[in-house]
Amino acid sequence: MSPTLRALVAVEAGEPADVLRLESRPVPAPGAGQALMRVSATPIHASDLHVLRGRYGFSLDFPAVGGHMECVGRVTALGPDTAGPEVGERVVFAAIPAVPGGHAVGTWQEYLVADTRRLLPVPDRLSDFSACQLAVNPLTALLLVTRELDAEPGEWLLQTAAGSTVGRLIIQLCRHLGVRTINVVRRRDAVEEIKAFGGDAVICTEDEDLSRRVAEIAGPAGVRKAVDCVAGPVGAQVSQALAPGGEVVVYGALSTHRQTDPAALTIPLQARSVIYETKTVRGFWLNRWFGIASPEDALRALSQVRRLVADEVLSIPQGRPFPLERFAEAVAFAETPAHGTKPLFVLRDDQANEDM
Prior knowledge:
- It is a single chain.
- The chain has 356 residues and is an alpha/beta fold.
- The protein has two domains: 4-133 and 317-352, Medium-chain alcohol dehydrogenases, catalytic domain (Quinone Oxidoreductase, Chain A, domain 1); 137-284, Rossmann fold (3-Layer(aba) Sandwich), CATH 3.40.50.
- It has 13 helices and 16 strands.
- The strands form three sheets. Strands 3, 5, 6, 7, 8, 15 and 16 form a seven-stranded mixed β-sheet that branches. Strands 11-10-9-12-13-14 form a six-stranded parallel β-sheet, with helices on both faces.
- Helix 4 packs across helix 5 (165-177).
């Protein structure tokens, strides 16, 4: 009898808890340039859930295994004539589909076949719970600050959703690089928390005017660089707060998190500000970056992230483990407001019962 694996499979597009099924499937065989990987842990990202709902930047052919971002595990076999990590080595798999032309590999399964150029060995001192989160949020933070905006020591960087996972990573990275941060939050009770975490200045949109406060903090020169993952009216306010010639990179749209009408996914910019102050508003999507970057460049960036995490410049919350069987509970937890830690599917018995 052929060996089988367990996988969380979406039978169609829809609400994840309704369309996911725990199924048995044959263990795949790796081809040339590929490795067979035994998955240990894999996170549940908001983008994973948007993919299943059919409202993300790429579509799936259903039925499809869920999870399309990242995981950690061990190499159990290599394809013919394939060089790469050794059998038994623990690796992170950057499963993010490269757009354009990418192929989605579901990570919510016990075994998967991976392109060896997407595998990054990880040190033993990094837990599975942290390692399985290396390839998305920390990499996004690194690329936004250093490549997209090339922030320099002493500069101000304005960011929204400062309490999010990426927001906190940006604060840590900017402190390491000497970049000063102005951090936007929605709730007054988050202000002191962000300051204690290392944010240089914090603006609360609950009771403060964003543009006025930015001018007070940064002075007449204003802020020339910003990142936004809220979009909507807040994204427009960020654009307004920029100095002439400033630039905001938009990498998310949290203000429309459950919005299903594409026409409602907007940033209401003021034309006068964009035209006469020559401001730039542009997007960043990690999937598209993977589609443009060479495999070597992508692996270099991931190696830099690994080094920053291993050196404790960036800290990744351990996450909350769930076994595959409790997928409905895990999905609900992922969308609980201010849940504070990322849910992870763990696929080893010794991990699945920890911290339950």
